[in-house]
Specification:
The protein is mainly alpha-helical. About 80% of the residues lie in helices and about 0% in strands. It has one domain. It has helices at about 5-25, 30-40, 45-65, 70-75, 90-130, 135-160, 160-175. It is elongated and about 65 Å long.
Length: about 180
């Protein structure tokens, strides 16, 4: 199996996992709708926010499944002659795994973006009504927003530059004593 074929299989397996995750999060949508109907300012935007986590996972899974070959060409290392190289090297496998982990981190961060937007809207509604938010709640919300932003950033970096993370991992593993292969 060439690195390209291995990357295609890995991306499609990840897409199947995301399809399953979308189904699981869709099962929780009625509970979120019930809760959002009880909050005064959230009843208008409750249905779109309830479907955002499962919809984003479903969209990501569909895009991964459809565009797996073109993404795999980007993720897999370039090979001069496909017939000569029939097996993945350890370095190729590490790059592909780092990219898959980046996709997994992004897929878990996307539903959190919906929750963060919901929290921001609730905070904005409270400010419009003159309700003072306690400082510890503001601090906790800011920490949550920073965490979501960090997840998205790390996921994108792992997805866009997996070979760079492979080199960093090699450097950390060998404490910089051996050059990267």
């Amino acid at each position: 199996m060439t690195p390209l074929n291995f990357a295609i299989v890995g991306l499609r397996l990840l897409a199947i996992y995301l399809f399953f995750q979308a189904g699981v999060t869709l099962a929780y949508a009625p509970f979120f709708l019930e809760i959002s109907n009880q909050i005064p300012g959230l009843s208008q935007i409750g249905p779109p926010l309830a479907l955002f986590p499962s919809g984003s996972l479903l969209l990501l899974a569909t895009l991964l499944f459809i565009f797996a070959p073109s993404l795999a060409r980007h993720l897999a290392p370039p090979v001069a002659d496909e017939s000569k190289k029939t097996a993945c090297s350890f370095e190729d496998l590490q790059s592909i795994v780092f990219a898959a982990v980046g996709i997994l981190i992004l897929s878990n961060a996307l539903p959190s973006v919906g929750r963060a937007l919901q929290n921001l809207y609730a905070w904005y509604s409270d400010q419009q009504q003159g309700i003072v938010t306690p400082p510890n709640q503001v601090r906790d919300s800011l920490i949550y927003y920073v965490g979501v932003l960090a997840q998205i950033t790390i996921g994108l970096l792992l997805l866009i530059n997996p070979s760079g993370f492979r080199k960093i991992w090699h450097w950390l593993r060998t404490a910089g004593t051996r050059p990267v292969e």
